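Homework-ish question, so no full write-ups if that breaks the rules, but can someone show me the predicted structure for this set?
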Amino acid sequence: MDVSDSIVDHLRHVAALPNLAATRYELEMEIGRGGLGVVYGARDRQLGRRVALKILDSALAGEAQIIAQLEHPAIVPIYEAGALPDGRVFYAMKLVTGARLDHYLTGSPLLAERLRVFRRVGEALAFAHTRGVIHRDLKPQNVMVGEFGEVYVMDWGVDAVAGTPGFRAPDPQLDQRSDIYALGALLHFVLPASAPLAIKAIAGKAMQADPSARYSSAPALLADIDRFQEGLAVRAWSEPLWHRLRRFAVRNAVLLWLLTAYAGVKFLLFLLRNF
Amino acid sequence: MDNDTEIGGPRNRFPSTQLSLLEAAAADWPNEALERVMTLYWKPVYRFIRLKFGKNNEDAKDLTQSFFAAALQRDFFGRFDPVKASFRTYLRMAVERFAASQHAAANRRKRGGDVEFEPVQDQAATTESPEQIFEREWQRQLFSLALDDLHAHCEGCGKQLQFRIFEAYDLAGGDRPSYAVLAARHGVTETAVTNCLAWARGALRAFVTERLRGVTSGERELREEMRLVWM
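A: Not a homework solution, just the prediction itself:
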């Protein structure tokens, strides 16, 4: 039976639609597609709410179990997992409405807001690492910013994933330090071109080719960001003297003004007494 | 057991798709394995040779036939290492090497390379490379064969209605009829139409999988190929 390319394209689409007849879900529309699965919007008939339904090859059934271990405010919760009649697996999860991080950044948010979002991502990663889970494919497309500012890290820990160019560490085998590299790449992506050198240096340290030269953990990276935001020296950068003096001046501006005023008054009194 | 879940019916209805390519080659080499490969790859190989080497229709057919005949004699499957490449890539590269050497030999015979190339209209009409056309033709052939399997299956197990509805909707070249029109045409409800479509699409997916299983080296490669087809 000969078929045209347009019919093949149509068949590829419709034959991939999941048969949800035996589930509580009703398919609505496709909302995302990646190398490992397709995400559909669906309606949960029992609870009358919309959910996101991810359909995966049966070889990736472990993904839902991995994510189910990760109960964290910045990780999308899994409601249910199951198998389809054709052997594929699905899991239902909270439907996050908002913008992908790369789209969110086109609104040019302030540096503080960018760092707030980044911090949520870092915290989620730090939590996952304590559970022995690595993300493997952290990138802006896998971070969602909700309409109320909530942040979600998606698409966790599938073995088949080899990372994305630009965010994948040059490590032969992916581990927690590889995630730190990706976190650094994400920070680099999040920062505007005008960002201070110190914060750029943090991204640079996290992205070192040598894993041992990177931050040892996500909390260590976040701690350096804390130092940056508090006006302290960051560990990623040995700053020049003029920069250190300027940072000291900014950080102690009130004290310096008071000292200057005090010195001025003393000098004035000295002049009045002697002339 | 509900027959609807036994896509393809009894296993012996699919003589060419139950074992992976290497299993079949090892157990029943060469006829069974090569037959599967030729069934799926003859057209892609023909098109690839035609476009890559600027061959006319007859020469491309001859070269394609020669390639598969040579494959029979040259331990073609034995040399395939699934760690290095997918079978599809291995086959395309083998075709390229074979056709290039044949092409060079033909040039030598003509003393000085006085070979006439016929303009290939297909190539002029597209910006796709021969490699891309090979991939596209492979996908089209894969679905054509799976549709034949589905059709035969429906005829064999009394599911002609399901196939007719599927054919009228999913294989429509132009505008697709509405579910209501299809329901009226076949004297069934709209729900029955959607059920028929869902069943046929699921069965088609299963037949595509079985066809792929027959020309891949094992589960891992099968998964990779399925990802390519469905994603």
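Now go work out the reasoning yourself. Hint: The mean pLDDT of chain A is 91.
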